[in-house]
Amino acid sequence: MTLPAERHVLVVFPHPDDEAFGVSGTISTYIEQDIPVTYACLTLGEMGRNLGNPPFATRESLPEIRKKELLASAEAMGLTDLRMLGLRDKTLEFEDDEKMVQLMSGLIEETDPSLIITFYPDYAVHPDHEATARAVIRAVRRMEDRPKLYCVAFSNDTLTRLGEPDVIHDISPVREKKMSSMRAHISQTAWMLEEMEHKLAQGDTEAENWLIKERFYTYRWHEDFEDSF
């Protein structure tokens, strides 16, 4: 599948591995089409739940492990413009709102994207996801000439409230790049990958469809109320 041409794509997520499951195929496809992509990862996921059993890491050593995994994921996708912004995992909701907006505004001004990909506020479950989404939306809201905004949503009420995604990318040609991106984050994803690969080996069509289709919602400015978040 050839994706529509873009001037520049900016992807913004809070954690290493956020990109892998939802958008690594889309990132890989844009890169194969020679469309520049910047991925801004706000934290190093240092509060990740999995330290191993028996432990393979400590709370002090985990950030370096996850940084190496993020770099490996970027390499798998062919991504060269990776920004690690150095904020702390599980604290983004407590950051000053204006500081977060200015951080996003600076990224947008520098990269001048025609498309931004992030989470959909109120539909992204994790507090760090929500804080990231709010900051991006607020930064874009202030712009006169707004880029397109594709959002990932996966809360339990997503389909009930937003309906079906309006943007679906068939990333079959880069399927293996997506698999490599997910495998790169093995410290946190081992059990999920084992379960998924078992389903794929059994010919589970739902698992295969999830793997090769990446789904997004175009942000609905007409339903946007700033005070709601």
Number of domains: 1
Largest beta-sheet characterization: 7 strands, mixed
Query: Which superfamily, in CATH terms, is the homologous superfamily?
Result: LmbE-like
What name does CATH use for the topology? Rossmann fold
Report helical residue fraction: 40-55%
Biggest sheet, spatial arrangement of strands: 3-2-1-4-5-7-6
Poorly predicted regions are: 51-55
Structural account:
The chain has 229 residues and is an alpha/beta fold. The chain has eight helices and seven strands. The chain is globular, with a radius of gyration of 17 Å. Mean pLDDT is 92; it is low at 51-55.
Q: Features of this protein?
A:
229 residues; alpha/beta; Rossmann fold; 7 strands
Give the SSE layout.
Blueprint (H helix, E strand, L loop, with lengths): L8 E5 L4 H15 L4 E7 L18 H16 L3 E7 L9 H15 L3 E5 L7 H15 L6 E5 L5 H5 L4 E4 L4 H10 L1 H16 L3 H8 E6 L11
Parallel strand pairs: 1-2, 1-4, 2-3, 4-5
Antiparallel strand pairs: 5-7, 6-7
Helix pairs in contact: 1-6, 2-6, 3-4
Question: Would you kindly provide a brief summary of this structure?
Answer:
The chain has 229 residues and is of the alpha/beta class. It has helices at 18-32, 62-77, 97-111, 127-141, 158-162, 175-184, 186-201, 205-212; strands at residues 9-13, 37-43, 81-87, 115-119, 148-152, 167-170, 213-218.
